[in-house]
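Lecture 7 notes: from sequence to structure.

We start with a single chain of 195 residues. Read the sequence below before looking at the structure.
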Amino acid sequence: MAQDLLDRALTDEVPLRSLPSDVADLLRRVGAPPRLAAHLRAVHDVAGQLTDAIAVMYPALPFDRDEVLFGAATHDVGKTIHTAELSAPGHQHEQAGYRLLVEQGVSGWLARFAASHSSWTAPDISTEELLVSLADKIWKAQRVPDLEDRISQHIRAYSDELPWEVFMKLDDLLTRIAQDADARLAFQNRHPVNA
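Now the structure, written as C-alpha cells:
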C-alpha cells in the first residue's frame, strides 16, 4: 500500500516533469513519504523551468543545470527521517538529508543541496545552490527579495545589462512560473504525508 502511494506520486500523469529515475529509485529505497515525493517533483519541475529560461536569457552565466535539477529533486530528502517537517517548520531535515544521500552513495558535492537549500545568505553560495533555493520558494509562488537579489547579482556578473534590467527580466520569469503554483500545491496535497 505505502509503495503504491509513493509510486503514484512519482508517476501520476500531470504536467510536471518526472524525477530522474535514479532519484525515484532512491526515494523508493529510503521509503519516502508520498507527499515528499510529490513536493520534490514539483520543485524539480520548477528548477527545470528556471534553468531552461535562464540559460537562454543569460547564456554566459556559468552553472551546471544537471546539478540544479538533482539538487531540486533531492533537497528535502531528510524529511524522510524528520517527517514532522513535512507539515511543520524545521531544519533538522537539512543535515539529515545530506547524511542520508551520502549513505546512499551520492557524492558529498551533490548531497550539499540537502544541507544548503535554505542557506542562500552564505558568503560562498554557488549559482546552483541559489537556483535550488529559488525553485524551492517559487514553486508555491513565495517571493523572497533577498534571494532574488542575490541571484540577480550572480547574473549581473556575467551580463552587460543594467541592474534594473536583470531584476525586471528575472521578476517577469518568476511571475510566469508562479502562476501555476496553485496546480502544483494541489498536486502535492493530493498525496498523503504518511503512507
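The chain has a mean pLDDT of 92. Keep this in mind for problem set 3.
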